[in-house]
Amino acid sequence: MSEQSYRLIISCPDRVGIVAAVSTFLAQQGGLIIEANHYRDPESGWFFMRQVVNAASLGYGADELRKRFKPLAEQFSMEWHVTDTAVAKRVVLMASKQAHCLSDLLYRWRSAEMPFDIPMVISNHRDLLSYVEWHNIDYHHLPVDQDNKAAHFSAVERLIDDCNADIIVLARYMQILPPAFCEKFAGKILNIHHSFLPAFAGAKPYHQAAERGVKLIGATCHFVTKDLDAGPIIEQDVVRISHHDDIPDLVRKGKDVEKTVLAKGLRYHLEDRVLIHGNKTIVFE
Questions:
Q1: Do 97 and 68 share a domain, yes or no?
Q2: What is the pLDDT at residue 104?
Q3: Could you tell me the strand order of the sheet in which 216-223 lies?
């Protein structure tokens, strides 16, 4: 198990002295910096920082670190937060019928490859019930009434609120989230889209790709917003195809890319490597 650490995540208007001020503060606290990432966006003039500090070197907890850092954060007009690696993030997984992305994340969770908690899986179908319950994870089947979808999403929202979820992952959950839901959980909903966005957004992207005769297909992990398939992109990858590949071939190859991209995007988010800036992300790989 890796050593406990605190992650200090910062974004603010750029100015001289930010790195020096933060580094000096941590040094004065006795903090041992074990990872540091910085980036300045040239268009907006905003500065982004991710500092990882050995927890034992400070001699006090995350709440005390937040209290002591607050005056410096106010001085530089920072948007900031501190996370403690000893506290696992709570991830709600949502899926419909397809299992490849869900099963991949469950394997990574079960093998402790990616440390996070799964309080529940939510689905609008029963297809994955036995598989999820085999993992001793609560499975909530919430069917969708096509004439009253609001009832479904109200129930989903209550479950997420009750379990105090940090992240919601749409692992091929084939429903469009209502705008109010997207806004309430802004920056917390990850989706995998089975195309290399912005190409072939919407339904049946593999069919669209086949009709266009493309030579590469891909997948995109992105944050969900009220604008369909248009949220800030976290991670993407592609696989080469040819004229020999029919649509089932594209789907088969695409599934491999989908689960890899979703897992990588979730890992970045779990490790606090993703900062949202407008409709794009800064990802400290």
A1: no
A2: 97
A3: 139-141, 121-123, 91-95, 167-170, 189-193, 216-223, 233-240
Do the beta carbons of residue 163 and residue 138 sit within 8 Å?
no
Interval 99-112: pLDDT, tens: 999 999 999 999 99
**Catalytic pick from 104, 117, 161, 229?**
229
241 with 102, same domain?
yes
Phi, psi of 236 (to 5 degrees): -145, 155
CA 274 to chain centroid: 8
Number of domains in the chain: 2
The rounded distance, in Å, linking the Cα atoms of 55 and 103 is 33
| Residue 162 and residue 269 share a domain | yes
3-state secondary structure (DSSP) of residue 106 = helix
**Boundary residue ending a domain (84, 104, 130):** 84
Q: Is 105 exposed, middle or buried (0-12, 13-18, 19+ CB in 10 A)?
A: buried
Rg of the Cα trace of the chain? 21
Q: What digits encode the pLDDT tens for the residues 135-180?
A: 999 999 999 999 899 999 999 999 999 999 999 999 999 999 999 9
Please list the alpha-helical segments (H only) found in 163-196: 179-184
Phi, psi angle pair for 215, to nearest 5°: -105, -5
Q: Are 61 and 38 in contact (CB under 8 A)?
A: no
Strands 79-84 and 189-193: unpaired
Which parts of the chain sit beneath pLDDT 70?
Answer: 1, 200
Q: For residue 207, what is the domain's CATH number?
A: 3.40.50.170
Does 104 qualify as catalytic in the annotation?
no
Supply the range of the domain harboring residue 213. Answer: 91-283
In terms of domains, do 53 and 115 share one? no
